[in-house]
Amino acid sequence: MNKKIDLNSDMGEGYGVWNMGHDLELLNYISSTNIACGWHAGDARRMRNLVTAAAAKNVRIGAHPGLPDLNGFGRREMAITAEDAYDFVMYQTGALQAFVHAAGAKLHHVKPHGALYTQAAKDLELARGIARAVHDLGDDLILYGLASSCFVQAAAEFKVPLWQEVFADRRYLANGLLVPRSNPRAVLTDEAEALAQAIAMAHQGTVQTIDGTTIQLQADTLCIHGDNPHALLFAKAIAKQLLTEG
């Protein structure tokens, strides 16, 4: 029997007249989209247009809430509480839910963005705030969270379905966390390297860390960052290879 893995990408991360990425083209190669909800990037028109486009292509629609940090693209850490995390996720996801409902579609998942995601991956209280919000949003929403991180325990505590996420275009530390973006080697830019990493995670559930060790990770969903300049090339190559290898 063939294996299955979800292929997701973060989208809608422009703002106003400023565009980022190749969102509409990427929809041809992925199975899930995470749509920015306006705080770290994105705006109402982009949200509506991407919901419509994703629904037309039968791509699963997810909310991509971030920290209130347009200038920093949501990637600067903030000292927030679990209650803050809950409110941030509820507020932003609720906005996207309205567009999804109006389009006659269904919201599938919630995936936090940037620093909100990486902080919660190593802070159980923040992960609990996010998991509680996903639970309270209802509709059997799935939480996308970093594999083998605090998201696993938090999702279990709130009985929220979790798809453990791995990354085709990011390097890993030996503890399973992502290499911080402050490290110049954090992001993969070589197509062959990203492809090899993606296939290893999909097939064996393994990834080679930045120090050369190999660790195990559960891979339910595989992310390609939409703001990566190589995103479209990576998505085409990875989708093709995953299908070729069953």
Mean pLDDT: 95
- Overall, the morphology is globular
Count of individual helical segments: 8
Radius of gyration: 16 Å
CATH-derived architecture: Alpha-Beta Barrel
Looking at this structure, what is the CATH superfamily? Glycoside hydrolase/deacetylase
How widely separated are the two ends? Answer: 9 Å
Q: Helical amount among residues, as a percent range?
A: 25-40%
**Low-confidence residue ranges:** none
Strand order of the largest sheet: 1-2-3-4-5-6-9
Helix/strand-derived class?
alpha/beta
CATH C-level class is: Alpha Beta
- Give the biggest sheet: 7 strands, parallel, barrel
Please, how many domains? 1
| CATH topology-level name | TIM Barrel
Order of helices and strands: EHEHEHEHHEHEHEEEH
Q: How large a portion of the residues is in β-strands, by DSSP E?
A: 15-25%
Number of strands: 9
Q: Could you outline the blueprint of secondary structure elements for this entry?
A:
Layout: E1 6-11, H1 23-26, E2 32-36, H2 44-56, E3 60-64, H3 82-102, E4 107-110, H4 114-122, H5 124-137, E5 142-146, H6 150-157, E6 162-167, H7 191-203, E7 206-208, E8 214-216, E9 221-224, H8 231-244
Parallel strand pairs: 1-2, 1-9, 2-3, 3-4, 4-5, 5-6, 6-9
Antiparallel strand pairs: 7-8
